[in-house]
Design a protein that fits this description.
203 residues; mainly alpha; globular
């Protein structure tokens, strides 16, 4: 009975982080659409649509492979982890370097006009780093699950969600309010660009 309780408890913890992640994305969507113009929000949807496809390719099923070999070679868990992590790290690093080298041509392809290329180059760079970090985190998170550490797993996930939501609110509401009302420290935010979707990507 205790085994089933442990299984159900861990499943609930792992599932909650995923549910909350989807929930906050759902909550943030009307905020984005109310703050950003349609054309600007379109950049967001296009970039994330492309990123979701690339993310799946970068992981190339290594998480499932890790669990399969972990069960097959129980006496070599660390070796399985190291090999799995290094495989993804190598591919992800190669992808990151290649993407950064060709960021200008990629930006030119994605931009609808020449004036947007500079911004798109920044967007591409942001997403290259996002995809790189997401990819290299796949195996460490899988290891936490394999080691039966749902608490550490959920803490890491919720910290990620909290930072994402928090920085979004800061960039969308807090900083503009400080600038608009000329509150103390407003001069520190002279770099802030209104309607720049890049802040969402930075978050």
């Amino acid at each position: 009975m205790s085994v089933y309780k442990k299984f159900l408890g861990q499943t609930a913890i792992y599932g909650l982080s995923t549910v909350f992640s989807r929930l906050f994305n759902f909550i943030l969507t009307p905020i984005y659409t109310s703050v950003y113009q349609k054309g600007v929000y379109g950049i967001f949807t296009n970039m994330y649509a492309n990123a979701s496809l690339i993310n799946a390719v970068l992981a190339f099923g290594m998480e499932s492979t890790y669990f399969r070999y972990l069960n097959k070679f129980e006496d070599k868990k660390q070796e399985v982890y190291n090999n799995s992590f290094l495989a993804i790290a190598f591919i992800s690093t190669l992808f990151l370097i290649t993407g950064l080298v060709f960021s200008t041509p990629i930006a030119s392809y994605l931009a609808t006009n020449a004036s947007e290329i500079a911004d798109y180059k920044q967007y591409v760079s942001f997403f290259l780093w996002i995809l790189f970090i997401d990819a290299i985190c796949v195996i460490p998170f899988a290891k936490l699950r394999a080691d039966g550490r749902p608490f550490k797993y959920s803490v890491a996930k919720f910290l990620n969600i909290g930072c994402f939501v928090g920085f979004n609110l800061i960039f969308i509401y807090v900083i503009p309010a400080i600038i608009k009302n000329d509150w103390m420290g407003a001069s520190l935010f002279s770099w802030y660009r209104h309607q720049w979707i890049g802040y969402v990507f930075v978050s």
